[in-house]
Automatic annotation (TrEMBL):
Protein name (database record): CBS domain-containing protein
Source organism superkingdom: Archaea
Keywords: CBS domain
Keyword Nucleus set for record: no
Organism: Geoglobus ahangari
Domain CBS: 10-69, 90-149, 154-211
Amino acid sequence: MKTGTVMDLASTNVITIPPTSTIMTSMKTMIRYSFRRLPIADAGTKRLEGIVTATDILNFLGGGEKNRLVKERYNGNLIAAVNEEIREIMERNVITVSTEDSWEDALELMIKKNVGGVPIINEDEIVKGIITERDLMIFLASRRSYDDFVSEYMTRGVITAEPDASIESVMKLMIKKKFRRLPIVKDGILLGVITSTSLVHYFSGEAFKKLITGDIRDVLDLPVSNLLQNEKILKYKELLVFHPSARISEIVRAMIEKNQAAALIVRKELEGIITERDLMKILYSKR
């Protein structure tokens, strides 16, 4: 039986921006509040009109089909393109839940639709909250511990990139595979992790220092190792690394304490990865 509404677990101090805000404004808002997703609401009525995620921003910057806006309308000029309105790249078909829905409804919808968070709206389609995988993982972890070995649940055969790969190729790989993070490995040695949030942070400020002609290629062609050396933008400054024999409860605790969204599983080399999404699903299935 489902008990309790989603609002019991939701974040209610929701930041929204109007659809006329610039893409750069959305990027800076995400970084300022450490958000991976940002609801877009009408400035007057406050009704939900769309949502933009860090993945949408990467798609626009060069990882996917939304980059056509930069190429075709602005001839590759990134400085001009980031001043376009966010409505041009936002997702209009927003996956939402109602204030009356249960947290189980929200969790099951997020799994079904493969999204990391959903806005919560009332009968007037006004955003009243937002709930994420992390909120649900923390809640479920508070209800019970789970001591199976991480090796039983981690994702194996982790896709990685080398440090000399271009920033563009890394973004395209992340968009194609729908990854929020990508380990960087050289000769079997884990060097770091690039996340969608780190890339948004980079393009919201640091990237402009490297623009020579204003053309986005000045930045996209640089090796991703440049980002690994930039502590201002790295989300994972201290990687969460565990042995395959680590317990699920140990990893959940570390993710919460360190405010991390993933852990890398290493024996001598990288063997797997487990994310807060994985942990949410594991804990829900064992509740």
